[in-house]
Every structure is written in C-alpha cells, then in structure tokens.
Amino acid sequence: MFSPGTCPAVGSIQPYNLNLPSLTAANVLGIQTLTRTVKNVGGSAATYNVSTTLPGYTVDVQPATLNLAPGASGTYTVKLTRTSAPAHTRRCTARSPGGPGATARTRCAAC
Q1: By Cβ atoms counted within 10 A, which residue in 16, 21, 54, 81 is the most buried?
Q2: Could you give the CA distance from residue 90 to residue 98 in angstroms, rounded to a whole number?
Q3: pLDDT for 105 beyond 50
Q4: Are residues 52 and 23 in contact, defined by beta-carbon separation less than 8 angstroms?
Q5: CA distance 43 to 32
Q6: Interacting residues of 18 by C-beta distance below 8 A, sequence separation 6+
Q7: Are 33 and 78 spatial neighbours (Cβ–Cβ below 8 Å)?
Q8: Domains in the chain and their CATH numbers?
C-alpha cells in the first residue's frame, strides 16, 4: 500500500503518523498507535480535548486533554485495538482537537 517517506534532512515517517488532522491506518489486524501534535496558535492558554470512537475497535487516547500556553505544542497518541471489525473493511468516525475548549470532528479510518 504505502511505504514510509524518507527525507535526508529529517529521516523517515510512517504514513499513518503524518501530522494531519485526520487519522488513517491500513491493515489494522491487531494494535496500531498513531501520534499527532497540536499547537496553540492563539494568544492565551487553551485546553484541547481529544476523543474518538471507531466501531469494531477499542480506542485509547493519551492524554485526552492538552493544556497549552500560547505558542506551545502538545502531543497525543491514539491506540487502536481491533476487536470485532471485519478485516479489510473501512470504519470511520472520530474527534480531534478543535479550538480552545472545543472538540472538533475529524476523520479516523482503519481497514
């Protein structure tokens, strides 16, 4: 499917860990952990809440809340564990940080 991208200046990264607002992982037959980083671009401290569900998977978000000062960045992980999802079937639904104190929708897909 997709292979890791390589940049001589930075190194390589798995496609599922590209810091995009959506979460996508292919061939999740067991456990897959995805990492995202958010940055507070506002002028005051902000709280970002992260939550997600994905049918056929248990989902663990750590940490579920990020408290960020202006200009600060925070990282969270989303651990997908396949439970009842049929193999090679796309599942989608998720939430990811929005503005301060908000939770905005984003796409999460696993197949």
Answers
A1: 54
A2: 24
A3: no
A4: yes
A5: 35
A6: none
A7: yes
A8: 23-104 (2.60.40.2310)
Q: Are 102 and 47 in contact (CB under 8 A)?
A: no
Question: Model confidence over 8-57: pLDDT tens digits?
Answer: 666 788 888 888 777 888 888 899 999 989 888 889 998 888 888 888 88
Q: Using CA atoms in the order 91, 35, 7, 70, what is the torsion angle rounded to 10 degrees?
A: 130
pTM of the model: 0.75
Instruction: For 16-54, give one letter per residue: b (16+ CB within 10 A) or e.
Output: beeeeeebbbeebeeebebebebebeeeeebebbbebeb
